[in-house]
Amino acid sequence: MSAGLRLTVDRLTHRYGSLTVLDDISLIAEPGQVMVLVGPSGCGKSTLLGLMGGLLSPSDGDVRCEGEVPGDCLNPMTYVFQDFALLPWRTVAGNISLALEDSALPRAERPARIAEMLSGGMRQRVGIARALAVRPACLLLDEPLSALDAQTRELLLEEFAALIARAGTTTVYVTHNLQEAVLLGQQIVVLSRRPGRVREVLRLDRPLAGRTAADPDLAAMEQRLWRMIRDDAAEAERERADAPA
Description:
Layout: E1 6-16, E2 19-29, E3 34-38, H1 45-52, E4 60-66, E5 77-80, H2 92-98, H3 110-117, H4 123-132, E6 138-142, H5 150-167, E7 170-174, H6 178-184, E8 187-191, E9 198-203, H7 216-242
Parallel strand pairs: 3-7, 3-8, 5-6, 6-7
Antiparallel strand pairs: 1-2, 1-4, 8-9
Helix pairs in contact: 2-4, 4-5, 6-7
């Protein structure tokens, strides 16, 4: 099991020109835990993920990455995006091996690493397996299940949670789906509408394994999250509808 890094976001603000997208964000993603970012459309969730992972530089504030990278880690900061960027001409194993080909892992050890990650052939799972194969110290996921229909998403969520829990890596997960948030999150960060600010941080200490959509406590948490963001979500939609084409 990999040890995760601690990501500390300290008074972070980000602007695109004169537009403030995020304002005075302070958070800590704890080692080995799953932080989920939720909020209305346009609140800056994906921007915050990019800032936490170093893809963007903040306008103000900073992001610190602390802790030792495990010896078996081949890529400390690993991203999974919505489309997964899989190669259709490669097999499932071939797509996962892509992440290992330019690494220091000896060729003879690669089949075992690939086999460890495999237990199915779904596109989404292959993308996650490819990311986990490099033993990341921090895994950053931007709405990886958003393209799925509700039934497929629900079927995949439990397996996905088990994968993340087994990997033991620090995970930051962006989603607009509140069921995903309560099934995967140990720390759920609720952002306000733009400019995104931390409205509340909810913590779920129970293990990821065994969480189900039918759990009444999790269903209640999902409803609590919806009540928090409902008005902001409605206002964000009105602003988008009123914006000039």
